[in-house]
Specification:
The chain has 652 residues and is an alpha/beta fold. It is 31% helix and 22% strand. Among the domains are: 1-84 and 138-205 and 293-348, 3-Layer(bba) Sandwich (FAD/NAD(P)-binding domain); 393-631, Aldolase class I (TIM Barrel), CATH 3.20.20. It binds flavin-adenine dinucleotide and 1-deoxy-D-xylulose-5-phosphate.
């Protein structure tokens, strides 16, 4: 059997850019490319416009990095023998019809009407001024696609043109093959870069956002030299004399074709922006589908199989984002993770209220995969999105939707940690202050690895053997949280553990440290043995929770001290968090069914065969257990009682 190294599904700009980069790194690559002319790449205007597009946050950072890569990328293509792709860092003018309140803009310069007219004469009379983005520009996406394809071919990338991927087959958490009309292909890695069609192969929230476009022929003196990015239309002059006018934004599914209304809107908006073009010749009208996602950011990184990488959902900015995507994805194939990946993982679409739902999970037959029913398939009832939003966990006055806390240690890779945290749906992650400070193995760069604007840090005093040390480390932890932007975070998970064999906490040292830390204004979450009296004392000195252990840390023995934990739950006025020893989702659910307010689970997730899926499973189990607790289980009886009523039964 011919096993390929990397199969890329999709031969748009994203698939081609990745293929070329991998090939240049001496990897073997095959592209399945159904039809380049249907690609958004073929329809795009080619603006490289992070600021003009008003991108923000991580999306802006990603786009700026990609923009910065463009000059060297284009030069590389030219060295590899590629023809001119009309790359032009010409700057972008963004005229507006109303003067903004604030005329300072990072990366842009405000020009009033008069100054703007120097840069671009003959703009419409409604224009009151505009922004000048000198670092932005454009490229010709059709030429770029053609050049990427021919270089890739010449370097030996196998391009299967006209071939569609119909489905994947799977085995043991991996993609086994990809099925095509002309047979089955097998590879070590699969990269899904199918643009808007990606959602047809994998249940990803990628949908087509239709854009209609047209081009006009500019007069020979080419009066437009820069991109003009208006409020509701843009004009992109190309070297060959075309002026691209774009674009409608239509969230109407796979509706084909151009329409009179679409063209009318484009032309009206374009003439208002730049009246002279009313006399220019209309050359071509076309449309394409932008690969849209709910937050308009791409999906990058591993999918729900360990050899499936996703590079899709680039929406309005795929031409701009091609170089950075190629870099990030090629690095990932080589086992190097990029700090952008957590923000762009598909798992971000799984919120705590809408629990993480990787589309496919293994069922009891280890080799088979089972689909979760969609809400539609499930008679409209979404079994996994039970509304738990008004059943939040409150610790020290702070509200959390998720009742699962996780840790960061013991994971095989930083990426598996990042993805597991997201898959679990947890909002509180505990971090060993000492290990981060010492850059202990597995903790290098940990502070940067998670998005602390979404995750609440719970610094812990792991490694402290007495009260004094724990107090000192708690203070360092508070500084660490502040440095990472959590100014008001005064939480500490207090661990005082002199015993290295069983990692059992010292009750006296814990109580002493807790008293002091409470006085210093900490919200103390003490890790203790399941001792009801100790828990009561800790509550009395002002601890924010109590955290009785289920069994020794990392032992996976489950909840061994049920009787005491029940008493603690019954008598506590602060939240009870069962911490340590939970080994499986059934044990997690059981802890919650007992009435615990929350769980802290680390080893069982981090050391699982597939930490990400185990994290998801623990998240679901925590919710299931909570719901069951609230629903009220039936009492346990010694004897059977028939399920159907006995009255009316015919007896002989
Ligand atoms: C009107 C319009 C204007 C735009 N303007 C800009 C712009 O100015 N600047 C910018 O940065 N971006 C722009 N974009 C967005 C940009 O075009 C896209 O983000 C980008 O092209 C996405 O690239 P892609 O390779 O992921 O997808 P596409 O370019 O859509 O390519 C996907 C390819 O995969 C193939 N494929 C899909 N499924 C399969 C399968 N199962 N088997 C085999 N092949 C498959 C398809 O046939 C297609 O050829 C614009 C888009 C549109 C529609
Ligand atoms: C990370 C952390 O705080 C652990 O010390 C915690 O007690 C979890 O225990 P498990 O690793 O057994 O889940």
């Amino acid at each position: 059997m011919n096993i390929r190294e990397n199969i890329i599904i999709g031969g748009g700009i994203i698939g081609l850019a990745i293929a070329l980069e991998l090939k240049l790194r001496n990897k073997q690559v095959t592209i399945l490319s159904r039809n380049f002319k249907q690609a958004a790449t073929h329809a795009a205007a080619g603006m490289l416009a992070p600021r003009a597009e008003n991108l923000t946050g991580e999306m802006l950072n990603l786009a700026l990095q990609s923009l910065a890569l463009y000059p060297q990328w284009i030069e590389k293509l030219s060295h590899l023998g590629g023809e001119d792709v009309d790359y032009n860092p010409c700057g972008i003018i963004a005229p507006v019809y109303e003067t903004p309140d604030n005329t300072s803009h990072d990366g842009g310069l405000w020009l009033d009407k008069k100054n703007l007219a120097h840069y671009q004469p003959d703009l419409g009379e409604d224009v009151v001024g505009g922004w000048w983005y000198p670092e932005e520009g454009q490229v010709d996406p059709r030429r770029l696609g053609t050049v990427l394809l021919s270089i890739a071919q010449s370097l030996g990338v196998e391009i299967l043109e006209g071939v569609s991927a119909i489905a994947f087959t799977r085995s043991q958490g991996k993609i086994k093959d990809v099925i095509t009309p002309s047979g089955t292909l097998t590879a070590d890695n699969y990269i899904l870069a199918g643009g808007s069609w990606s959602g047809k192969l994998q249940p990803l929230p990628v949908r087509p956002i239709k854009g209609q476009m047209l081009s006009l022929k500019m007069p020979s003196d080419k009066p437009l030299e820069r991109v003009i990015f208006g409020e509701n239309t843009y004009l992109v002059p190309k070297k060959d004399g075309r002026l691209i006018v774009g674009a409608t934004v239509e969230d109407i599914g796979w509706v084909k074709g151009t329409t009179a209304q679409g063209v009318n809107t484009l032309l009206n908006n374009a003439i208002r922006l730049y009246p002279p073009l009313a006399q220019w010749k209309l050359e071509e009208i076309w449309y394409g589908y932008r690969p849209g996602t709910p937050d308009e950011m791409p999906i990058l990184g591993y999918g729900d199989a360990e050899n499936l990488i996703l590079a899709t959902g680039h929406h309005r900015n795929g031409i701009l984002l091609a170089p950075i995507t190629a870099k990030i994805i090629s690095n990932l194939v080589e086992g190097k993770t990029d700090s952008f990946l957590p923000s762009f993982s598909y798992l971000r679409f799984n919120s705590p209220e809408n629990p993480p739902l990787p589309p496919l999970v293994k069922n009891s037959n280890k080799n088979q995969i089972m689909n979760y029913p969609t809400p539609q398939q499930n008679n409209g009832y979404h079994a996994y999105s039970h509304d738990v939003s008004d059943d939040g966990l409150v610790i020290a006055g702070r509200k959390f939707k998720s009742r699962l806390m996780t840790g960061t240690g013991k994971y095989p890779t930083m990426e598996s940690m990042q993805q597991s945290v997201m898959a679990s749906g947890c909002e509180i992650v505990t971090v060993a202050v000492r290990r981060v400070q010492n850059n202990a193995p597995g903790h290098e760069g940990l502070a940067e690895a998670l998005d602390w604007s979404k995750i609440w840090m719970l610094p812990n005093t792991a490694g402290c053997t007495n009260a004094e040390e724990a107090i000192r480390v708690a203070r360092l932890g508070r500084e660490m949280a502040k440095l990472l932007g959590q100014e008001d975070n005064n939480f500490v998970k207090l661990e005082v553990i002199p015993d290295s064999k069983y990692l059992l906490p010292d009750p006296i040292g814990t109580l002493q440290a807790a008293e002091q830390l409470v006085k210093e204004g900490f919200a103390v979450l003490p890790y203790v043995n399941a001792d009801p009296l100790l828990c009561k004392r800790l509550e009395e000195v002002g601890c924010a929770t109590v955290m009785p252990l289920g069994s020794p840390i990392g032992s996976g023995q489950g909840i061994q001290n049920v009787a005491n934990i029940k008493i603690i739950i019954e008598q506590s006025k602060v939240p009870v968090v069962i911490d340590a020893g939970i080994g499986s989702p059934s044990e997690a659910a059981y802890g919650m069914e007992l009435g615990a307010d929350a769980l802290l689970i680390n080893s069982a997730i981090a050391l699982a065969e597939n930490p990400v899926i185990m994290a998801q499973s623990m998240g679901l189990a925590t919710q299931a257990g909570r719901l069951a607790y609230k629903a009220g289980r039936i009492p346990i009886k010694n004897y059977a009682s028939a399920s159907s009523p006995l009255t009316g039964v015919v007896t002989k």
